[in-house]
Request: fold
Amino acid sequence: MPDSLLPLLAAALEARAELLPRLHAEQTDAYRLFHGSVEGHPGLTIDRYGDLVLVQCFHSPLAADTLAAVQSFYTALLPDLTLVFNDRSHANSRIGNALPADQLEAAMLPREMHEMGITYRIAGRHAGQDPWLFLDLRAARRRVMQEAPGKSLLNLFAYTCGVGIAAAKAGARFVVNVDFADSSLAVGKENARLNDLPVRPRFVKCDAFAAMRQYSGVGQPKRVRGKVMPPFPELEAQTFDLVVLDPPRHAKSPFGVVDLVNDYASVFKPALLCTSAGGTLICTNNVADVQRDAWLDQLQRSASKAGRPIREMEWIMPEADFPSCDGQPPLKIALLRV
Reply:
């Protein structure tokens, strides 16, 4: 296996020969080094996050000799790196491989990475499963930085608040990050502390449905069909110039169900109602099986039913470290003027 994989790693690096100097020049040291689904080894991803190289396999485990060869390859390229390997070929992509004590300590060490001059916290392993910043969403964060100056921004399903931090850095006048997880918002707050931001972002621990209903003016009852709802913060109705909707594939709570395959409208409509007239809504759908044009049709029909038709739309494509065979990458990002 090492003999067949190493030429693929070299080819992937060569394919990024123009991209990486551009990223470094804009103070970005986080990018995908190997996108296995397109570059010859499905299920294997290799990402750089500052001085961390994160190797993850999703379809089948990586043999010890192959991992050693991967480490040697990148050590020659980046001699000061720390390589962390996560075997995520188990159920629900859970990390399944134990690490020796010294490697685990290095993997869990909080580090810093940079993107477009912004500093973010990163760790090879932490209490959750996914990295603290999704690199394929860089294209959306870049566009948000272009759109955000002087505007208000609502970041829904904010995770570690990368979009909100980018907007604040770019000069947004008001930034709200909404996520239900204290642990994710804690990383977001740390990201804010790591940067000199002209505006202090707000971090709201709340189910996204409850937040959207309140911001849109629809309201969130404390009792639904005779059942008392879990506690949620009371939020004043307001709309935002720029709304970013980046939901997970599937999630369920007493407030609602996220299902990007069968019912994207359930999250799209309330997000749309939080968007000011003449504003911009950036939506994502990360399900590979959902066809881009069919998804856009759903968005257009949902917007028309809500009385908020889409005036303009634009696809935001992931950047060159996330190549696609057919020009239709799994992560779909739509910018909508409404």
